[in-house]
Amino acid sequence: MMETWALWAALTAYALAGSLAIAGIWRGQPSGRLVLTLLSGALALHALSLGLRWARLGHGPFTTMFEILSSNIFSFTLVYAAALWRFPAIRPTFALAAPLVFLMMGWLMVTNPEPGVFPPTFDTGWLYVHIGFGKLFMGAALVALGVSLVPAMRLTGLGARAFAALPDDTSLDELAFRFLSAGLVFDTLMLAAGAIWAQDAWGRYWAFDPLETWSLVTWLLAALAIHARITLRPPAYAGTLMIALVFTVAYATFFGVPFVTERPHQGVV
Amino acid sequence: MPEQGALIQPVRVFPWRSAAPLLTWLASPWVTLGSIAATAAAAVASVSLGWGATWTLAAPLTVFTVNLAMAAVTHPKLRGDPVLLSFHLALAAFVLLAALGRMTYLKGQVEVTESAKFDAAHAGIENGPWHINRLGETRFFNEGMVIEYDAQRVRGETYNQVRWLDDGGRWRTTVIGDEYPLVINGYRFYTTGNKGFAPVFTWRAKGGAPVSGSVHLPGYPLHEARQETVWNPPAGPSIHIRLAFDEEILDPARPSVFRVPQRPRALVTAEGSRATLLPGETMALVSGELRFDAVSTWMGYSISYDPAKPWLLAALLTATVALAWRLASRWRAEPWMDTPKPEQGA
Question: Which domain holds residue A244?
Answer without folding.
Answer: 119-261
